Q: What sequence folds into this?
């Protein structure tokens, strides 16, 4: 029962992580590769971009923790 819950949670987190990473990629274009000014311009993330970045990091960490727990469960007989 616990293992099934963890497997399902990992699938949901993986899909959420994929969506969040794809949402962040909207600002990266091929034109930045050819344009030196665009490649050297740095800007801070504000508002929704910052929230998406923080959510991506948090969900990524939680996904890694669940993966470790899922791999350690058989050693404890669960």
A:
């Amino acid at each position: 029962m616990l293992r099934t819950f963890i497997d399902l949670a990992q699938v949901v987190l993986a899909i959420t992580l994929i969506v969040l990473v794809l949402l962040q990629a909207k600002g990266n274009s091929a034109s930045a590769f050819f344009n030196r000014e665009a490649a050297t311009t740095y800007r801070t993330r504000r508002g929704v971009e910052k929230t998406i970045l923080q959510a991506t990091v948090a969900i990524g960490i939680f996904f890694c923790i669940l993966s470790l727990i899922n791999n350690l469960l058989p050693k404890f007989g669960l």
Observations:
- Helices lie at 2-24, 31-34, 36-40, 48-72.
- The CA atoms of residues 52 and 63 lie 16 Å apart.
